[in-house]
C-alpha cells in the first residue's frame, strides 16, 4: 500500500497493488497492520455500500457531529465518482477548502477522510457502487448535511443540474449549520 498526499494535509489517497492474471485480479483494500505502518491509527467498525443508478447523482455534503464524528475510507467498486472532502474544522488553515479525487473501479484508489470533514461525491457514470468503512456507527441524531453548492465553499462538481435527495437539496450552508469541529495543532511528542 502506498499513500499519496492531497492539498489538505489530513486527507490522503491510498493506493493498493492489484495482482492480475488470466482469471482477473486481486487487491488488498484494508489491513490493520499495514495501515498502522502507514501511520493510520483508525479502527473501522462499520462498512457501508451505496448504489446510484444514474450519472450525475450527487450525494453530500455529509458528516456526523461530535461525539459521533466519523473517519471514512471511501472506494468506488463499480463505475466512477468524483469524491470530495471539505474541511469544516473552525480555525484550520484549510477551513472551507476542499479536495476532489477521482475514484474508479479501475484505479482502485481509496480516499481517507478524517473527522472534521464533510464528504460527498458525484457519479461520473451510470450504475455506480461506492463502499466505505467508518470508525463510528451511524447516529441519526448526529447526522448532518451542508449544501453541495454552498457559495463560501464553492466545490466545482462539474455538473449543473445534479440528481439530489430532498435532504441534500434542503441542507443549510455551513455558516447556518451546527457543525461543531475545531482545529487543534498537532504537538510533537
What Rg is obtained from the alpha carbons, in whole angstroms? 16 Å
The CATH superfamily is Jelly Rolls
Q: How large a portion of the residues is in β-strands, by DSSP E? A: 35-45%
Low-pLDDT residue intervals, each spanning 5 or more residues: none
Total number of β-strand segments?
A: 13
Shape: globular
What series of H and E elements makes up the topology? EEEEHEEEEEEEEEH
Q: How many DSSP H or I helices?
A: 2
What average pLDDT do the residues reach?
Answer: 95
Which CATH C-level class is it?
Answer: Mainly Beta
In short:
By secondary structure, the protein is mostly beta strands.
Q: Could you please describe the fold and organization of this structure?
A:
The chain is mainly β. It has one domain: Jelly Rolls. Helices cover 5% and strands 39% of the residues. The chain has a six-stranded antiparallel β-sheet with strand order 1-2-10-7-12-5, with no helix packed on it. A five-stranded antiparallel β-sheet has the order 9-8-11-6-13, with no helix packed on it. A hairpin with a 2-residue loop joins β3 and β4 (24-27). The radius of gyration is 16 Å and the shape is globular. It starts with a strand and ends in a 20-residue tail after the last helix. The model has no long low-confidence stretch (mean pLDDT 95).
Amino acid at each position: 500500500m502506498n499513500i499519496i498526499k492531497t492539498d489538505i494535509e489530513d486527507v490522503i489517497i491510498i493506493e493498493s497493488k492489484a495482482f492480475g492474471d488470466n482469471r482477473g485480479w486481486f487487491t488488498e483494500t484494508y489491513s490493520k497492520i499495514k495501515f498502522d505502518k502507514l501511520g493510520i491509527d483508525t479502527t473501522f467498525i462499520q462498512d457501508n455500500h451505496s448504489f446510484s443508478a444514474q450519472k450525475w447523482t450527487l450525494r453530500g455534503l455529509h458528516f456526523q457531529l461530535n461525539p459521533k464524528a466519523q473517519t471514512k475510507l471511501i472506494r468506488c467498486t463499480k463505475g466512477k465518482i468524483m469524491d470530495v472532502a471539505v474541511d469544516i474544522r473552525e480555525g484550520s488553515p484549510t477551513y472551507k477548502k476542499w479536495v476532489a479525487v477521482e475514484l474508479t473501479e479501475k484505479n482502485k484508489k481509496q480516499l481517507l477522510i478524517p473527522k472534521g470533514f464533510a464528504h460527498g461525491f458525484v457519479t461520473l457514470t451510470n450504475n455506480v457502487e461506492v463502499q466505505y468503512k467508518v470508525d463510528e456507527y451511524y447516529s441519526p441524531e448526529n447526522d448532518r448535511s451542508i449544501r453541495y453548492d454552498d457559495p463560501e465553499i464553492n466545490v466545482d462538481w462539474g455538473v449543473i443540474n445534479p440528481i439530489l435527495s430532498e435532504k441534500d437539496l434542503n441542507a443549510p450552508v455551513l455558516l447556518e449549520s451546527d457543525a461543531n469541529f475545531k482545529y487543534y495543532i498537532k504537538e510533537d511528542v
